[in-house]
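Hi W., the 2-phosphoglycolic acid complex you wanted:
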Amino acid sequence: MSRKPLIAGNWKMNKNVAEGAALAAEITAADIDYSTRDVLFAPPFTNIYAVSEAVKKNGGKAFVAAQNVYFETSGAFTGEVSCDMIKSAGAEWVILGHSERRSIFGETDEVINKKVKKALSEGLSVILCVGETLWEREAGTEVETVLAQTGKGLEGVADLSKVVIAYEPVWAIGTGKTASPADAEAMHKAIREYIGKIRSKEQAENIRILYGGSMKPENAKELMAQPDVDGGLIGGASLKAADFLKIINFDK
Ligand code: PGA
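Structure:
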């Protein structure tokens, strides 16, 4: 089977309501062949609704994701946002376990796993992020680290049809340093083989594994050409319509 590439923009803490709607409108007004690729925007919570409306106006073909969600349904959790809230604002996806959530906000594999299970039980699709630090890579423990994050993040999740994995080496995020296509491919292959072991060969074949970490127009084509790289999770280069469109149209 061939996996449909997913090009996902992680806007992080950038763009207010008007700016976010304008960016999504500009990108979705362009020529994109949605039959051969999926496109996703992950704006901050505050502009999920406006971005969803902008996408709908241009045909509604791109997906909208939150960058995080809480694992409880509702109640006294000041500052948190629920699955129902993001769905009601127009998100069908959520990014979970991003390295910034792990390192700055202290999210553990256990917390991330609770969020993955909750999001899937509420009908959301999930992008689960995994990745090693520079220290772990230099110590030669990168594969072990990434597979452990993958296994723990997916604990108790039997059906992976609504799960995408994003491999993001922490040392490559926002630094301009990209993993070489060969390094990315090696890790993606290791993740896919591991999914084959902990779930099934079929699920391993079908699951999409994105690369993230300084992906940009100049390196997208070569990264995307790797057999186990099924798309990108793009930060910096997703904030400019022209750059993101070049990545979306990596094969044109
Ligand atoms: P970057 O971020 O493309 O700016 O490196 C990627 C990410 O953290 O998702």
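The chain has a mean pLDDT of 97.

W.
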